[in-house]
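Good day; I would like, with your permission, to put a structural problem before you. A protein sequence and the structure tokens that stand for its backbone fold form the material at issue. The record follows directly beneath this note:
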Amino acid sequence: MRHLLSGNADVAASTHSAGSADVTDGAGVTTGAGTSSGAVGAVDLDACYRLPPLAAGQVHVRSNFVSSVDGATEVDGRSGALGGSADRRVFRLLRWLADVVLVGAGTVVAEDYGPVIVPPDRRERRVAAGQDAVPPVAVVSAALRLDPSARLFAAPVRPLVLTCEAAPPARRKALAEVADVLVCGERRVDTAVALRALGERGLGRVLCEGGPSLHADLADAGLLDELCVTIAPLLAGPDHLRMVRGRRWQAPLTMTLSQVLEEDGNLFLRYLRR
């Protein structure tokens, strides 16, 4: 059974076939990028995940995770083992809708990040909407333990590195050769300052892909506007990373469930901040 639940409406959907050549996307995910359709059967994913208009300098932060039923966000250190073809379609679409993909350095290394792949017709749609043809990847890193020769830094679209004053000067200089390095804080990366810097560059639609420490910082600071999460129909067992990690919050963050999609036992949930 494949359906969309939104409010009280149930919309039946048939199976969608991605069909086309596979390429490796920015997070090491193999996807059929030759088709840019955002529809899963009768469900229009573009409509489901459309973002609100933003004023100049305004920022909207959306995070996207895939999780097992018992809360694991990785298996053997990689998230790809949890997601199926439908999850990859949503993953890809959320990138196409974003102005910038925000990710922590640990996730960049663990997932072997590369550039965002955007097919020609989606590039045209982005440009017509006033966006860059391809969104850059912005890496959050205080220690700058990043390899300047990694494939992310060979991308045609120059990545951003969001760091702090205390970052090692030699590493900052080396990364400045292959990325735009922005200082966003003194001893640590201040996520509010980092988001403001992105907004000033016109990169207001921010898609955060983790990891759990960055995600926790954004949520705890009240900077997370929405959460998209795929619940995969499996139990991963104990000792896996979860969506958040770090210090204890003063209070939980309450969110509103705005949308549920289902395909082959996978749930695609969209939560908005209250």
User: Anything to note?
Assistant: Confidence is low (pLDDT under 50) at residues 5-41. The longest strand covers residues 60-68. The first helix runs from residue 45 to 48. Residues 198 and 267 are 31 Å apart (CA to CA).
